[in-house]
Each structure stands twice: as structure tokens, then as C-alpha cells.
Amino acid sequence: MNPLWSNIFRKPGYEGTLAYFLGTVPTFANLGRRDLSFLETLVHIRNYNPGETVFSEGDIGSGMYIIRSGKIRIEMKDEQGQDQIQADLETGDFFGEIALTTPRRRIATATATEQTVLVGLFRADVLDAIRKHPAIASKILLGLTRVLSERLQHAGLRLREQSYAHLDSGNEDQP
Amino acid sequence: MTALPRPTGRAKNLVLFLVLSAGIATGITIFSSASTIVDWVETATSGLFLPVLLSLIVTFLLDPLVQFFERTQISRTTSIFAVYAIFLILFITLLTLIGPPNWRSMLDALQADFPRYISRVLEYLNSLLASVHNQFPYLENYDISGKVRQWAQGFLGIILLETPRSAMRIGSLFLLVPLFSFFFLRDSRRIMRNLISLTPNRYFEMVLDIYDHVSWQLANFIRGRILEAMLIGLVVWFGLSLTDIRYAPLLGVIAGVTNLVPYIGPIVGMVPGLVIALVDLGVGPQFWWIFCVYLLIAQVILDNFILIPILISRVSNLHPLWVILAIVMGGKLYGVLGMIIGVPIASVIKIAILEIRHYRSSFNSAREILTNHHD
Does a structural domain hold residue B126? Predict the structure, then answer.
């Protein structure tokens, strides 16, 4: 076959599509193929240069970001006003998901450390989806709730461990 | 740098002259080419203004219906076709039930009647002028009736001349408006998303949020205005057809369309109906009923007490000064059509500005809370 024609008729593998990528993100793991292709129409693709700020502490946030490729550094200010690195996120990680539910200020600064492609899902589009396609939108929100509650439980457990550790050390000091 | 000789006075003048003339020449070239481009754009889009406007109106009206179908897991394109099919069936059944409206005879009758109405108005104006002249003899005699007659003749001439051409244009509207609105309905979301995605990363979230707020408000406002005009037109049509007055459907359309302009519109929309009533029916119970339909039923009861509180938010109220400015500026740009849509467009701009300001103030107050928190 003529290489020109084979190029035209070559179908991209499903693995390369945005829908497939979204399905690998834990938040959307329970979504079917149809739901994922709908989600594909909701999200925005944004490109960032190395060193570019995604959002700063105190900005009004309106949605979450998923890293398609590249790296993102999350920083928070400590009491002295110094930036403390909280996390370095990689492909498939997501951040800023708290702002998806209500408009609230960002509690950390996110910066791209290399050439990065982010997939953004924003409140305006989710609300629109709730109005127009309630079934799929509730699936998306349920996935988000699952991940958030897992995280909450994890944090609660860690807090309990820490307070026990604190009590233990307190007991050691006392005798 | 020191190798260059210092320019003498004459050389300096020469350089200055050259630079200046080059600058002026460039300016003129840019200006003239810009104005040619503007001319081209104007010529190319001159016939498109009305179809695009009507398609936007149709899009705003049909969008909720399309969304209703879409909710039942039908694709958007199919839902649009479904809505179109429903309207086509409704239209055909209406035509078969009532029969096609006799536009031809209506137009002929109007052409015959129009000079009669105008001459009666002129007579009345003349008598009014005479009485004014009697009371204030020092006023100079102003030939108002002559002006009105001239204007009316010009208007009639335009109607006679434009009728075949406007028939063609109406025919093309029947083709263009459904086509345009189909694509607006199907792709408007994608078009707007692509436009928004052009904003720089730093402002992207803010722009998306503001767009969401503004577009929602605007859609409601425009839909409300169109529904209001339609209902007013229908009520006036129905109210007038109870009397012996002619051209009730046409007067209903005029009342509905002029109702888009606040304060002045309803009064202007009343004038043709009242003139026809005065000339054909004279002052009597029917005339007062028509007066009541226009003023009391359509304006006070329906519009002020029922439609405006339900359909239109108070946010979109414009100061009367802005209304007048919008009418004048719209009229300068696009004639009668511009006068009618000038005020809604001004309201749209006002809503957009208010929403952006609201968003910014909430943004800033959140910033302040954060900085106070840190202090």
C-alpha cells in the first residue's frame, strides 16, 4: 500500500488518546468508555513552560489539574514566609481538587519544573455537566468523593498515630 | 562612534524632513489601507447582519429545548434535528389549518391605505398648527406638515421599491437562518471553548469563571426579552382582532418589536395602531378599547406586573440616559434595526461589566482575608 494512504487510514491506538489517559487517573477509574469520551469534552488542555506558575497561594481556585506529562512542584509558605516544598508531582498525579466543589483560595503554590501538559477540570464545566448530563456528572463526582474520602481517612489515621506517639513521649517524660 | 562626523545643520534638517515625510507617508498608507479593508469587510458582511442576528435569537430560544432532548442520552446533533422536525411539523399543520396568510393582498391594501392615513395625520397636524399659531402669533410659521408629507412619500417610495427585493431577502432568510442556527446550536460551546483556551495560563481560571457567570446571565436576559416581545405582540394582536381594526397581525408585530426598547418603544409602537383606529373607526368605544389594549393590558398589566418581574432581572435596568444614548448610537450605526437592538445590546454590556466587577470584588476580598490571616 502507498505510504500516503496508510498514513491517512492509520487509526491512533486507544492507548494514546486523552480518554484512555483520563481512565488511568484514580479519580475517574470507575468511568466507562462512553463516560470518558464525554469527560474528554469537559476538560481543558493547558501547556506550561518550565518555571511557569499554575496557581499561587491565595488565588481563587476553580478546579483541579491532572498531569498529562511533565513535573509540578507544590510549595507552601511556613511561619517565616519561606517556601517549603510539599511535593513533586509526576504524570498521572492530580492536584487542586478541593477547589472543584466550592470557590476557595489556593493553600499552596503550584509551579511547573519542566515542560508540562496539564489537563484541567473546572467547576464551571462540571456544573454545566450536572445540568445537562446528570448521570455522567454524578459518576465523575462520585469518583472524586471516593478519592477525597480515602485521603481523609488516611489523614485521620495518621493524626491518630501522631497523637498516640505524642502521648507516649509525654509519658516517658513524666516519671 | 566617534568616527562619524557630526551632522551639520542642513544635514540635520534634511534628515528630519525625510523622517517626517516618511512617517506621514506610512501613516497615510496604513490609514488608507485600513479604511479599504474596513470597506471590504463592510461590503462583505452587509447582508449578513440580519440573518446572523435572527439566527442568534433562534439559537437562544431553541437551546433549552435541545438540552431537554439531550438529557435523554440523544446526541446533540440528533436533538437539534428533532427540535427542527417538531417545529417544521407545527408550522405545516398551522399552514394547513389556517391557510397561508394572504401577504400579497395585505401589502396591496396597505399601499393603498398608507397615503390616506398620512393625509389624515397631516390634516390633524395642520389644524393643530393653526390653533397654535392663533394663540402664539409671534411664532414663526414652521412647515411641519410639509416635512411629514416629504418623509411619508419617501417612506412609501422605499416600500414600493424594496418589496420585490425584500421578498428575495425574506426567502434567503428562510434558508440562512435555520442553517446558521443549526451550527450555532451545535458548535457554539466548542467555539467559545476554543476562544477561551487562547487566554494565558495565569488568567485562564478567572476568565473561565467570569465567562460562565456572564454567559448564563446573558442567555437568561436575551431569552427573557424575546419571550416578552413575543407575548406582548400576541396579546396586542389578539386584543386588536376583537375590534374591526385592520392590520391587527401587523400591528401586533410592530408592538412586540418596539417593546424591546424601554420607555420610548411602547409609545412608538402604539402610534400606528392609534392612527389607523382614529382614521378608520373614529373616536368611539372601539378606539378606547384599542387604547386600553395598548396601554393598560399590554403595557401595565402584562408587561409591568407579570412579564418583567418574572423574566427580566432588575440588574439589567438601564438609566434612561443610557437608553437614549443607545438608541441614538444604534440608529447612527444600523438605522431602525440599530435603534431597536441598541438598548438590549447596552443592557448586555452592562450585565457583563457588573458580573466582572462582582467577580473581581469577591476575588479581592478573598485576598484581603488571606493577608489578614497571615498577619
Answer: yes
Q: What is the identity of the amino acid at B223?
A: R
Residue A24 to residue A55: CA distance in whole angstroms = 24
> Do both B54 and B146 map to the same domain?
yes
What is the predicted ipTM?
0.78
Closest of A32, A116, A103 to residue A63, by C-alpha:
A103
Of B71, B369, B371, which has the smallest distance from its Cβ to A132's Cβ?
B71
B71/A123 CB distance under 8 A: no
A171 in any annotated domain? no
Residue of A nearest to B216 (CA): A128
Question: Do the strands A53-55 and A94-95 form a parallel or antiparallel pair, or are they unpaired?
Answer: unpaired
Residues B257 and B153 in one domain: no
Q: Are strands A109-112 and A53-55 parallel, antiparallel or unpaired?
A: antiparallel
Q: Do B366 and A105 touch (CB under 8 A)?
A: yes
Nearest beta carbon to residue B205 from set A57, A63, A133: A63
Give B193→chain A minimum CA distance, Å: 8
For residue A106, with 0-12 CB atoms within 10 Å meaning exposed, 13-18 middle and 19 or more buried, which class applies?
A: buried
- How would you write the pLDDT of chain B (375 residues) with one tens digit per residue? 445 555 567 778 888 888 888 888 888 877 777 777 777 777 777 777 778 888 888 888 888 888 888 877 788 888 899 999 999 999 888 888 776 666 667 767 777 777 777 777 778 777 877 787 777 766 666 666 677 777 777 776 766 666 666 666 777 888 888 999 999 988 888 888 888 888 888 888 888 888 887 787 778 888 888 888 888 888 888 888 888 777 788 888 888 888 887 778 888 888 888 888 887 777 778 888 888 888 877 777 777 777 777 776 666 677 778 888 888 888 888 777 787 788 888 888 888 888 778 777 765 655 555 555 444
- Count of the separate structural domains present in chain A: 1
Same domain, B72 and B128: yes
Place of cell 488542555: A45
What is the extent of the structural domain holding B68? 48-187
Q: Which residues contact B5 (CB under 8 A, 6 or more apart)?
A: none
B363: closest chain A residue by CA = A60
Q: Do B208 and A46 touch (CB under 8 A)?
A: no
Residue of A37, A42, A53, A62 for testing the chain B interface, max B β-carbons within 10 Å: A62
How many structural domains comprise chain B?
2
